[in-house]
Amino acid sequence: MRIGDVTVHPLSDGVVPMPPGLLYPDVPASVWQDLPGTVDEQGLLQVPFGGFLAMDRRGNRVVFDLGGGLDPQLLPDGELPPVRELLPLRLAELDCAPASVTDVVLSHLHIDHVGWASTGGVPTFPGARHHIHTEDWKHYVDGDADDAVRRKVAPLRDAALLWDGDSVSPFDWLRLVHAPGHTPGTSIALIESRGESLALVGDLFHHPAALDHPHWRCGFDWDARQAEAARRHWLERLRTTRTPLVGPHFPGLEPVTLHGDSGVSSENSVSKGLPWTA
Q1: How many domains does the chain have?
Q2: Taking phi first (over 0 means left), then psi (-120 to 50 degrees means alpha), and beta for anything else, what does residue 121 get?
Q3: HSE-CB for 118 with a 13 A CA cutoff
């Protein structure tokens, strides 16, 4: 996608088959069976994981979220995804060497978003500033919320550019906005250039079907009530501004656009946004 002067590419790192009940424990399996194209013959969601690369005309190369990394154990049973470890290959296809990445933005510090933060105990992107909200750093790196995350992210201590408060603008075309709930430091990345915009929503939503159901509780939310409030707020905000949104777990990593004047219950309230271009 081209957003004004900024070009955005999807970066798939893999796909993990997952029972939808892991993501949305209160939603009956029959609901997914009635949603065309969501689950496979075994009733599983094929959930992508990865991130995005944004490049501007000044040579900045910004990677948003870092997938699962080497040997990603993303499910409770520890089974490895059949499709994995693709993000470095995708960057190579885009002629983007790790050393050329100027910035990394982590929407939050869950293991399926920080997998390539470090490799062998050293930062995978050695010259990049790593933008992380302070609340997530406190919770996952200085705290003991997740040992696997701490091992991946702690090597970034000298490269981390921690930010606090409601928002920060690393570039004139990029705003990071604090949206806690899924984790304490979850943030949304707004790319805005020449009157065009795109929202990279991290795990605010895991699947486009949930855009019509902001009350669906995610099983991985740190604070379910706060997460629901964030979902409702951002649905209204993005609908009002007609901003396409995409997350690293959306099928095909394809953006969608919200429609409708109020509420999110209409079956026609969501449509695909602009397709990715080569």
Answers
A1: 1
A2: left
A3: 17
The CATH number of the domain holding residue 35 is 3.60.15.10
In a domain, 278, yes or no: no
Q: In this structure, are residues 210 and 27 in contact, taking their beta carbons and an 8 Å threshold?
A: no
Cα separation, 173 vs 190, in Å, equals: 8
Whether residue 277 lies inside any domain: the answer is no
Mean pLDDT of the chain: 93
**Residue 84 structural domain:** 2-272
- Does the structure show a pLDDT above 70 at 276? no
Bridge partners, residue 3, by sequence: 6
**Per-residue three-class SS string for the chain:** CEECCEEEEEEEEEEEEECHHHHCCCCCHHHHHCCCCCECCCCCEEEEEEEEEEECCCCCEEEECCCCCCCCCCCCCCCCCCECCCHHHHHHHCCCCHHHCCEEECCCCCCCCCCCCEECCEECCCCCEEEEEHHHHHHHHHCCCCHHHHHHHHHHCCCEEEECCCEEEEECCEEEEECCCCCCCCEEEEEEECCEEEEECCCCCCCHHHHHCCCCCCCCCCCHHHHHHHHHHHHHHHHHHCCCEECCCCHHHCCEEECCCCCCCCCCCEEECCCCCC
Tokens at 262, concatenated: 């109020």
Domain annotation covers residue 209: yes
Q: Please give the model's pTM, rounded to 2 decimal places.
A: 0.94
* Res. 259 pLDDT band, cuts 50 70 90: confident
Q: Within a domain: residue 181?
A: yes
